[in-house]
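Weekly puzzle thread! Below is a chain. First person to post its structure in token form gets bragging rights.
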Amino acid sequence: MNTIDAKTKGKNKCWRLTKNRLIEQLGLNVFRYEKDKRKRNSKIAVTVAVCLVLVALAVYCGGIAYGYVYLGLTTLVPSMALFISSLVTLSFSLFKSNGEFFGFSDYDLIMSLPLTVKTVINSRFLNMYIWNTFISILVMLPMGIIYLGVEQPHFSVYLMWIASIFLVSLIPTALAAIFGAVVAAISAKFRYTSALATILSIGLVAAVLLLLMTAPTADFGFGELFDSQTGTLNEAAFSSLAPFISERLNQFYPPTKFFKEAIVDGKILSFLLFAAISIGVYLVFLQLLALKYKQINTALTSHMSKRNYKVTVLQQSGVTVALYKKTLMRILKSTVAATNLLIGCVLAILLAVSTLIIGPEQMLQSMDLIDYLPLAKNSAGYVIAAMVSMTNTATISLALEGENIWIVKSLPITPKKLYDSYLLTNLTFTIPTSIICSVLFSISLKANFSEMLLILVTPLCFSLFTAVAGIFIGNRMAYYDWQDETQLVKQSLMSLIGMLGGMIVIALLGVIANVGFVPLDAKLLTTSINVFILALTVMVYLHERNRSIR
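Winning reply:
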């Protein structure tokens, strides 16, 4: 009886930790108790924006399922539903694992409570599981409605599909947690744990993205799915496409095989295997992580210093340079901030390298878009700029000061020096990335001098603009009473605008410059846009440089 009571109390403690974490992440207390209308409105705007994105995701997944049914590939819907759900949840979890399981700010407070290590791990895993299951519902529910509505299988299939919604996120969540554990365990053995954890996280994320980009795909392009003369569907190509995709999905993610057999063939044993694997991966992960959890987190949250430390050379630098170094290290030492803010630069470099290795002709040929190769040369600069603009550290640099903002305000410096340090930090990431990607794209596209110049200048102009725009946004939306960096980096309106706002603006200008809405040569129009963006950048900078610190 005592054992049962202890287990019940442990479950209650686990749920209380999870509930408190969810309340903090959702910002429910802001809606209930916040008296500052600006903060409430900001939270409402973020909530509305996120809801719109989630609704769009659900509609998009339903559209994918309908498209497969329309093309006669109905049997692929279950496999695609499981694969898309797993891929999306894995992508979200990879960027959260380090701040969620390891190195979280309130680690000392949590571990000082009368809780077991397994209770803490369970609460953290349960938190990620709830979020990922919500994403799985958005993906699998609309796709399931389409598939089950068309096929109308046995009643047991309905039950298996519903149960799978709550099982599908277990493996991706465990994989993301293992990813975080590996990064944390390696970095904990070195002196500069935070910096190394950041580098390893970005490197492993890049490796995962590269694996997904180079995953086996069909040996024929979209052009083979349609008759080039009549424009009608090529039924033979489509009939061979279904088993090919199914085989590739089974190879890339084996659980899809069991799920497909359970749903399409009605094999209950396959479903039980799928459920056993999903739950088994979680249980094994829990047991292994509990062994070294305290040691890893203690190493991550501790600071190492030399016993025989002596000041030998004291370096002196200007105010702006000193602030720049401080801001740069603040970003790099925060695994949450670095992995989320620098992913745009990582994506841009991966795309540029892939284009150089594979070749733009082959990439466009696989999509039956080879006729648009001349357009690709003028669009390359916009593509680079759109990806690089996702790296906007200037937007949150001021808010990242947190409770130490009073120290910054008390320093005998002008606001301009502080803002310049934020701009330099942002440009440290975006300018080199833009130059490297521009050179790689110019080589792969065999651009002449004028085309190469446009490919280079366009992302540089937009990098300057988005950095200055980040200062503009941060000056008006910064807040300092955040409890967790994840809340600031991933859940704030200013971060959302900073990451997506520039990308949307650049995409719109790229469409205007290349589609032919304006009766001007594409190169001339791109040059005009660059001049306009530079002029706008100078105007915004002159307006913001002496604005008082918020």
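Puzzle host: Confirmed. Bonus trivia for everyone else. Confidence is low (pLDDT under 50) at residues 216-223.
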